[in-house]
Known about the structure:
One of its GO terms (biological process) is signal transduction. By secondary structure, the chain is an alpha+beta fold.
Amino acid sequence: xxxxxxxxxxxxxxxxxxxxxxxxxxxxxxxxxxxxxxxxxxxxxxxxxxxxxxxxxxxxxxxxxxxxxxxxxxxxxxxxxxxxxxxxxxxxxxxxxxxxxxxxxxxxxxxxxxxxxxxxxxxxxxxxxxxxxxxxxxxxxxxxxxxxxxxxxxxxxxxxxxxxxxxxxxxxxxxxxxxxxxxxxxxxxxxxxxxxxxxxxxxxxxxxxxxxxx
Length: 214
């Protein structure tokens, strides 16, 4: 059976947030040198879909072309892969997603970013990696009005709170219930960190009173 002829593919021009991520259900064996071989279960990052018949993909450290109908028929889509990595604290998958240009500021159905989920789980290595991305948004509010700082406060992760504050997370933002992050904190250490962050600098020398002023 003859293979369809195809012209040289155009240079890939992927845009952040446009990367399609799928998991292969079967092995695909490259038939030509510019195609990509991968195994069942491999994660594929579809980088360029400008050619309707052949898409450019990355698997691990290798790139190549795969037939678009294979993706449609023989893979399963991974929805919000960076969110999933952040939720589970899977730093290797998270780093791989960022390397393959999955958007750090993408929103899931709840309006949350990967940073929300890393903060929610207190996954410090994931938080540190996400916060190193130059365009990461630290004060995004989800559909509940919560920022990543609200998430870290509610779940009682003082180390995550500290990291976010160091990256200019705002402690004075109110969620849809009118709550600031410190009002969601259940443990004293987290609450103290957040209260201190919203005390005006002019009062920062008033030692000993900051926890008794409610």
